[in-house]
């Protein structure tokens, strides 16, 4: 099993980004930050409130075409992330070559997403059937079992997301299909779960803190210039810009971690 060093990955990522910033950041802004900002601006306020605090008994009606627009935005972001991985894993490649490679491998990434979603839905169906069986015997037993199975589902999804964190790098760096890419990504993270978990938690916390600070500061400036609407737009743009920077550092670090893990 290969050794993973987060510190070494950080040092290599910082040096690489310093050299290739003019290639990485425009791609991140155009294909990661901008689609996210557009989808955010298209999301109605009541839907944003529901996303922040989901309630099963109060799901707002989605505007026509919103689900398709959100799905398209996600696909574009995945396309951009693959291009960033291509730039990080193949030094010397041009942006045009990275985008073409990303486009050619995007169907594989979409296929892995579909397969994972199908597996999750199948697991949820099994949970529902088990809950129904227990409900026939006792409502209290069904309630307890539903809570336990729901907790198990959350843990499984969380565990799988960490184990598959190198999936994009595998997809862009190899010629494997859907199943082979999933298997290789899973194998590369074997024995490294807690180290990757700690790394991702730190990145998430830093991203949240910096993004929130940028949103508040630029939101205040926007409110002085254009009122509440200006505050919302300025805050959203600032948060999107911070997200692009964080994504570049995160993806380049994951690329370096992938190289370490695949060295063996």
TrEMBL record:
Residues 5-260 form the DUF7847 domain. InterPro entries: DUF7847. It comes from the Bacteria. The chain crosses the membrane at residues 21-39, 66-87, 108-135, 147-172, 193-221, 233-255. Keywords: Membrane, Transmembrane, Transmembrane helix. This is DUF7847 domain-containing protein.
């Amino acid at each position: 099993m290969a050794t993973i060093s987060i510190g070494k990955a950080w040092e290599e990522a910082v040096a690489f980004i310093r050299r290739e910033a003019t290639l990485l950041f425009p791609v991140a802004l155009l294909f990661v930050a901008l689609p996210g900002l557009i989808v955010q601006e298209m999301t109605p306020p009541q839907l944003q409130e529901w996303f922040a605090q989901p309630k099963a008994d109060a799901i707002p009606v989605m505007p026509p075409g919103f689900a398709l627009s959100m799905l398209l935005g996600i696909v574009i972001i995945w396309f951009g992330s693959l291009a960033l991985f291509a730039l990080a894993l193949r030094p010397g490649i041009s942006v045009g070559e990275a985008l073409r490679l990303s486009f050619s491998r995007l169907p594989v990434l979409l296929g892995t997403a579909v397969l994972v979603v199908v597996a999750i839905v199948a697991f949820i169906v099994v949970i529902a059937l088990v809950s129904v069986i227990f409900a026939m015997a006792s409502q209290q037993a069904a309630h307890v079992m539903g809570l336990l199975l729901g907790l198990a589902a959350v843990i499984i999804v969380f565990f799988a997301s960490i184990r598959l964190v190198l999936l994009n790098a595998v997809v862009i760096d190899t010629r494997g299909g859907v199943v082979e890419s999933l298997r290789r990504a899973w194998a590369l993270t074997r024995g490294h779960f807690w180290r990757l978990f700690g790394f991702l938690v730190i990145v998430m916390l830093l991203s949240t803190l910096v993004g929130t600070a940028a949103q508040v500061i630029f939101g205040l400036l926007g409110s002085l210039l254009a009122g509440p609407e200006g505050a919302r737009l300025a805050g959203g743009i600032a948060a999107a810009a911070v997200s692009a920077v964080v994504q570049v550092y995160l993806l380049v670090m994951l690329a370096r971690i992938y190289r370490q893990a695949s060295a063996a």
